Every structure is written in C-alpha cells, then in structure tokens.
Amino acid sequence: MLDNANIRKDFPMLQKTMQSHPLVYLDSGATTLKPRQVIDAVVNYYENYGANAHRGDYDLSYFVDQEYEQTRKDVAAFLHAADAREIVYTSGASSALNLVAYGYGRKFLQRGDIILTSVAEHASCVLPWMRVAQECGAVVQYVPLDAQGRITLEAVASMMNERVRVVALAHISNVLGYLAPMREICELAHRYGAVVVVDGAQSVPHIPLDVVAMDCDFLAFSAHKMCGPTGIGILYGKLELLDAMDPLYLGGDSNARFDMCGNIQLKNAPYKFESGTQPIEGIFGLHAALQYIQSIGRKNIHAWEMELHDYAIRELRRLNNIEVYNPDADTGIITFNVKNVFAQDAATFFNANGIAVRSGQHCAKLLNNMLDTSATIRASFYLYTSYADVDRFLDVCRRATMEACLDVFF
C-alpha cells in the first residue's frame, strides 16, 4: 500500500486554499496535480540545458538528445512495448487519437467500411472517426452498453462482421470509470481483420498495462493525467502499422531528404511523426513522472483509489439527496448528481467549500441520453487523495440541498 501522507508532501498545490478552505482536489480525471519532482525536471531543462533535440552539435544538445530518447525507451518499458520505435511523442491523447484516425483511417478505410465505437467515448475517440467516415464513406456504429453502462465482450461480438475495420474504445470510461475487457476485444477484432485503437488516458496512469499482452494496435495517453506536464502525450502503435501510416504534419526532422521536384523521403517511425521542435521540457517532465509513478507502483495506486472509492460509495448510499450513476466503478471515479439541482450549480456549492470537482458532460455528450440527465458531477481520486479529502467531500454532499446550492449565488 502506498504512503499517502508522505506522497502528499510532494505536491505543492495541496498547500493551497480555495474559497478560504484548504483545497480538496477531486478532479484528477481532468488533469492531475504535479509533484515537486516533475516541476523540478521541467525547471531543470530551462535552467541547465535549453537546447533543441536532434539539432545541435554541442554538449547541451547531446544531453537533450539522450534524455529525449531515454524517455522514449522508458515509456516503451512502462507499457511493455516490444520496441521503443513504437512510441511517438504527441501533444496529448487527443492529438494521438487524431493521428491514428487521419494517418491510418483516412489512408486505408473505404466506402462501406465500419468503425466501431461506443456512446461512452470521450469526444477525442469519436469525432476524428466521424470526420474520417464522412470523407471516405465509412460508417460509424456504436457498441450497445449494458444496463450499468459497461462495454462487454458479448456486445462487441454482436456488432462484429467482416466490414468492421476499426474498433476505437476507451480502456476505462472517463465518466463511469468502467474497465473494458480490452485484451478479449482485441483478440475478437483481430479475427475479423480489424485494428483496435485504445484510448488509454484513464487507464495508463492508474493500472498496470502491457500492450503486447493486450495486443492492441494503437494506444494513446497524456502525461498530464499521470502527474506529468501538459502538452505532451504518447501514441503507441505496432511498428508495421506506424510504418504504413502517413504523418499529419511535415517539416523539420520528419524527412530524410526532399528536392525541388517534390520528391520527399520521410524518415522511419517514430521520427516521421515528430516534425518540428517537440515540447522538450514536457518530455523531461514526462520522464520524471514515469519515475515517480513507478516508484509507487500502479498496482498500489489502483488499490488506494479503490479503497477510497469503496469507502465513499458506502457513505453516499446513506444519502437520499445524492444520486450516484456508477457505484460499481473499477477506478476512483464517482459520477453523481445532487437531486433536483443542476450539476453546475451543485459544483459551485462544492467550490464554495474548497472542493474541486468537475461538472458537465465530461466531453462524452453521447452518454447523457443513457444516463437520462443533461449533466453530471464527477469526483475523481488519485494517489494524493486522502481519507480526509473524502470525508470533506462527503460532508459537503450531506449539506448539498437545493437551498444550500442556490444560496451560494445570493
């Protein structure tokens, strides 16, 4: 089990107040707080190196090159990827998912092909495929969710046929926190010749993951959801698929040579996807975040989140004013509403009490019809969330009535 009290000392933001209350940060599903080790790594780049990567013939640049490539190798090890060349730097999970949709889908999908996804997906896992489908005449279809809102293997199997070319699903739902049986889905999809694109934004930071054992074709995640900086993400792709894909952008360092006649020879993966100057300080920070997460262990992180989640759910079940939509979530995500109160109004009441939660549709607009609500509130835990944080959250839940929530505005 992790040492939560000592972990909390690493996070400067936890010393802050909000609305004159000690900050309780329960929005880690949107972005995580950053430990001092990651902040120091970013500052270290700016204060001590500052050079570009793969550009200079001097010591500072050589060191940056080494850190740039060592981070790639360590990401590969973190995912248990077979080859560091299967790791592409992007600006985030959204960028990585768009890269697959346009670099792979636009090139290989044909009229009548089927892209399989679900209504539980984040917009970044749906909208790129919608656009690609419109451009090439493919069709987007949606795996039915079960009564809880889970994606089951049986539901995916019911939708599979020889025209399904792409299956694009989240490993863990950012709204409901349910874990999809991705290894089994990959095995099933591959029997039909489809590729599987995994949105790993909510899984990579929280649970042990092995892309070779899962046998996914692509997987995307962001550093900022695992204690790293914003502006840097990762696309994992099987090397033969990356080699077959086209990059979205062309420019410096993505090409081997070109001439005035328009002949262009691109570099091999991953470099053909990394045109221009990358967010080098973000890569330094990502490396520090990897080391930080590994020092604690994702198995320990997940166990801690579930301990807090189960405690919170037991207490929330006692409250008549709170409706929870995912009491059996597989991660530390609790999606709920205060009865008879609009989600944003309730979130403002939580804010007035120093508690940061997210309200709205959580970039998963298609899911709200199933939940039969226009918006929800999401509390999401991480390794720095404490029992005291959860108790503060529960206390505000108990006091969250229509009158109390509206009083904040007057």
TrEMBL record:
Q: Where in the numbering of this chain does the Aminotransferase class V domain appear?
A: 24-393
Alphabetically list the UniProt keywords: Pyridoxal phosphate, Transferase
What does the record give as cofactor?
pyridoxal 5'-phosphate
Q: What Enzyme Commission number(s) apply to this enzyme?
A: 2.8.1.7
Catalytic reactions of this protein: (sulfur carrier)-H + L-cysteine = (sulfur carrier)-SH + L-alanine
InterPro entries from the entry? Aminotrans_V_dom, Aminotrans_V_PyrdxlP_BS, Cys_dSase_SufS, Cysteine_dSase, PyrdxlP-dep_Trfase, PyrdxlP-dep_Trfase_major, PyrdxlP-dep_Trfase_small
Q: Tell me, what's a Pfam family for it?
A: Aminotran_5
The protein's GO terms of the molecular function aspect are:
cysteine desulfurase activity; pyridoxal phosphate binding
Q: Does the keyword Lipid metabolism apply?
A: no
Note the superkingdom of the native organism: Bacteria
- Gene Ontology biological process terms, A to Z: cysteine metabolic process
| Annotated family | Belongs to the class-V pyridoxal-phosphate-dependent aminotransferase family. Csd subfamily.
**PANTHER family with a match to the protein in the record:** CYSTEINE DESULFURASE, CYSTEINE DESULFURASE 1, CHLOROPLASTIC
Q: What is this protein called?
A: cysteine desulfurase
Lineage, opening ranks: Bacteria, Bacillati, Bacillota, Clostridia, Eubacteriales
